[in-house]
Amino acid sequence: MNKPLADRIRPTTLDDVVGQKHLLSKGKALRNLIESGDIPNLIFYGPSGVGKTTVASIIANETNRALRRLNGTTASTQDIKDIVAEIGTFTAPNGILLYLDEIQYFNKRQQQSLLEYIENGKITLIASTTENPYFYIYPAILSRSTVFEFKSVEGEEVIPAIKRGFDILADEYKVLIEADENVYKRIASGCGGDVRKALNSVENCFFATKTVDGKKNVTLEIAEELTQKSSVRYDKEGDEHYDIVSAYQKSMRGSDPDAALHYLARLLEAGDLPSACRRLMVCACEDVGLAYPQIIPIVKSAVDIAMMVGMPEARLPLADAVVLVATAPKSNSAHNAINEAMADVQKGNYGPIPRQLQNKHFDGEDAEVKGQNYIYPHDYENHWTYQQYLPDVLKDKRYYEFGANKNEQAFKAYWDKIKG
Fold first, then answer.
1. Tens digits of per-residue pLDDT, 295-334?
2. Crossing angle of helices 315-327/273-283, nearest 10°?
3. I want to staple 363 with a disulfide (CB 3.0 to 4.6 A). Which of 211, 257, 367, 368 is the partner?
4. Are the C-beta atoms of residues 190 and 151 closer than 8 Å to each other?
5. pLDDT, average across residues 84-90
6. What is the distance between the alpha carbons of residues 250 and 269, in angstroms, rounded to a whole number?
7. Which of 79, 86, 35, 85 is nearest to 61 (CA)?
8. Residue 196: in which H helix or E strand, if any?
């Protein structure tokens, strides 16, 4: 019984697969393809432990094809050649279905070596990846494949698999298991949508519970202790990282403090304090900006405190700052202005700096107008007088537009009065 529980209870029919109803329910495209028996090359994209390998195994069984598995982290081009050598032999009379897990770790040359065989139909490829396939998979492979996205499994959908896992262990070890619904819910909520992780927790709870008079009473305390960290699905280099930090900033920008705190908690629980701080400071400058400019040093101070004290206390100044940013008035006027200014510079749309602004105080013999002629604003009423500051080719360009918030409108009223 050394084989993991997740492998021992792996479903053998589509109806037994946990989750993925958007792909496998009656009438859905992937299910229709599988039931037709005419399987194209497929790419399964999604987090680990959500059924990608299981569905590939079911496809191989239902189409009566020889299933060969490779993992992109360890497989070589020679491994592919060895599989190709089986084509047409008695070991693969109906063709080969190659399941290539973690294809993103195959380099371009290795991926190219598959092309000839998937084009002529000798091999049907099912590749899986936890990363965005449009970033990591060779375009020629993508163009010959159909991509299906697998999603994290909802907690209530995981519970039947958890119960089945306990039943199988009870049968294998000839014991009676007592566990209430709260134990199942705790394991389900702690697995982060990963069924394999949930079943690993089932095994841990089973073996961590003593057998008394032929019974194992799995308690909520045991379940909480053994699943307390399993809810964090996170890879600092993977899609989940970018999804969380994106949701974090968008929630602050959208003025939803509850959602912003939720994503802050996920970042902190995953140990990614730097990302939590960095996006918070960006949001203060980009999304609150001139509507409440005092927020920028306030957020910087909160970040400095968080980095100084570390976790778990860092959650306190960060929570203060996140709620402040989320509930503050918003303006992206400066953000839009600098983007437009940089776009002009990048396109080469600029000219010589006006003479009166240059940092030189003499004129060559070729100068048509002698003297710098800079006007010192502080010599005038309200410390302002008209003077051209932009280059001639941009002299009428407007990058900045005052935002509609109270703060910027007060500045606008001030300058409208002075500039007439």
1. 999 999 999 999 888 888 999 999 999 999 999 999 999 9
2. 30
3. 367
4. no
5. 74
6. 19
7. 35
8. helix 195-208
